[in-house]
Structure formats: C-alpha cells, structure tokens
C-alpha cells in the first residue's frame, strides 16, 4: 500500500475557495438552462451575464480510491430567477449509497434533499451548520440569502455524481422560492414526475 502525504487547505471566505485545492470547476448561468420554471427570466439573465460564474467548486482530491475522501468548498452567487433562488444542478451519487457532509461557512442557504421515492427534506444552512446528506438522497444547494453562500463539503472519493436522475423526473419535486415576506419556502414543481416503483427499487438495490 502506498502512503499518501497529509493534505492541508484553507477555506478563504472572501473568495469562497479552498486554497490548496487540486481541482476547480465552475458553472455559468448558461449551464443552468432547464432548471428554472421561469424560462423567460432565465433567458434574460443569460442575455445579461450568461458566461458569468453562478457557482464554483474547489476541491482536494487525493485519489478516487474506495475508502478515500474528497474535501472542498463551494461558493454560490446570491440572486433569483423569477421567484426561484439561485441553485446548483443537484445530483444523486453515482454510487447512491455514499453519503456527504456539508458545513456552512458564510451566507444563508437551503440544502434541498429528495429521496428516489419522492420524499422531500429541507435543511437551512448558516455559518457553522453541519448537514448530513444520507446515502440515497438527491441533493441540491440553494442560496436564499443576499450574500454569497460558502460551504465546505466532504464525501467518499468513489461516490461519483449522477445529474440525469433529476432531469429525467422533470426536475426536483420542490422548488425553493421567495415567500414574499423576507424568507423562503418550498413549493411543488409542476413539471415533476414521480419515479416508477421499479426504478426506485433498482436505485435502492445499489449498495456496493
Ligand atoms: Fe454530492
């Protein structure tokens, strides 16, 4: 067995980046097409700033080995498209029995979770809030505040990400919107289609 060196990174709140990261990717507003109910509002945002960064991930990935871990930081701009807040694409892990941990660094967010059979949970994230995303839950983060949302995360290195599970269902079951009263609320996504039980069963059987 090869020994790895210990790693170190520093969470820079100002930039929302992990200093010492080995990997970085960004999503622009143009990359978020299809995620929002108000397509005209999204088109207007894309026309104005389509190539601007909507959210960014910097992470430290020692290896993709089973038993190893990926740690990193995500930073998301504040804002809304129509009545919906800015959000990440969301995913289930390609090995769906892998969990994840999120830790709030700054800003106010919501972790939106959905089980394959359509149960929904929301966890409000603030600085020093820790969220356990259990195995088999689809997860997406939403910036419901007026400042950038910065969170640290950690997940098993062989988890992988499957984004299609959301697209195939017409989106996640709930949308996180401005409640018109200074807060947020979850409402039904009219485009959502419940997964057939056979599909739910096949996902829940993926335990390796
Ligand atoms: Fe994840």
Give a verbal description of the structure:
This protein has 208 residues and is mainly beta. The protein contains three helices and 15 strands. The strands form five sheets. A six-stranded antiparallel beta sheet has the order 3-4-5-13-8-11, with no helix packed on it. A three-stranded antiparallel beta sheet has the order 10-9-12, with no helix packed on it. It has a two-stranded antiparallel sheet with strand order 1-2. It binds fe (ii) ion. Fe (ii) ion (FE2) binds next to loops.
Helix tally equals: 3
Strand content: 35-45%
> For this structure, what is the CATH class?
Mainly Beta
- Helicity level, as a percent range? 10-25%
CATH second-level architecture: Sandwich
Largest sheet features:
6 strands, antiparallel
Summarize the structure.
Helix content is 12%, strand content 38%.
Question: Can you tag this structure with a few keywords?
Answer:
single chain, 208 residues, mainly beta, Jelly Rolls, three-stranded antiparallel sheet, binds fe (ii) ion
Please describe the topology of this protein.
Elements: E1 10-12, E2 17-19, E3 23-28, H1 39-49, E4 53-60, E5 69-76, E6 80-81, E7 84-85, E8 100-106, E9 109-114, E10 120-125, E11 130-133, E12 138-143, E13 149-156, H2 164-168, E14 174-178, E15 184-188, H3 197-204
Antiparallel strand pairs: 1-2, 3-4, 4-5, 5-13, 6-7, 8-11, 8-13, 9-10, 9-12, 14-15
Bound molecules: fe (ii) ion (FE2).
